Amino acid sequence: ALTTDRPIALEGDDLRYVAGYGLAKEAADKVYEAAGVGAEDVDVVELHDCFAHNELIMYEALGLCPEGDAAKFIDAGDNTYGGRYVVNPSGGLLSKGHPIGATGLAQCSELVQQLRGNAGKRQVDGARVALQHNVGLGGACVVTMYRI
Question: For residues 88 and 111, is the Cβ–Cβ distance under 8 A?
C-alpha cells in the first residue's frame, strides 16, 4: 500500500504525523486488510529506522504495540530475537549508511532471504510472514506484506 501526506501532517499539533505516523498507520491498515492478516501474524519486520525516534513511532503506527507503549515494547525485548517480532534483522538503515534510493530494495532482499530460510546468522526461526515499511518524510509511505 502506498500513502501520501494529508494536511493533518502539518496542521495538527501531534508531531508524530510530521514524522510519518499517519502515513504508516494508513498504509499498514490497508495492507493488513488486503492480506487478511494482522500485526499479530507478522514474524519479521524491516522498518525504516532513519532516526531513533522514527522507529519508536512506527512500532505504534504499524500496530506492533499499542499506542503509547513503544518504550515498554522495547524494554520487554519484543522487537528482537526471542521477542514478539524481530525488527531489522539486517541491522536497519543505520547499519547500511541509509542508502537513499536503495533502502527499499535492501529491505525487500532481506525479507525474501528470511522467508526462504537463507538469512544465515540473521535468520528468524520459522519466519512465514514479513512486513516492510519505508517512508519518505513529507511525502510518501509504502508498506508491503510478504508471506510463504
Answer: no
Query: Which CATH number characterizes residue 68's domain?
Result: 3.40.47.10
Domain count, the chain: 1
pTM of the model: 0.93
Round to whole Å and give the CA distance between 148 and 137: 31
Element holding 103 (H helix, E strand): helix 103-116
Range of the domain at 73: 2-147
Q: Which residues contact 110 (CB under 8 A, 6 or more apart)?
A: 46, 89, 90, 119, 122
- Residues 5-61 have pLDDT tens digits of 777 777 878 888 888 899 999 999 999 999 999 999 999 999 999 888 889 999 999
3 state SS of 122: helix
Q: Strand 86-87 to strand 44-47: parallel, antiparallel, or no bridges (unpaired)? A: parallel
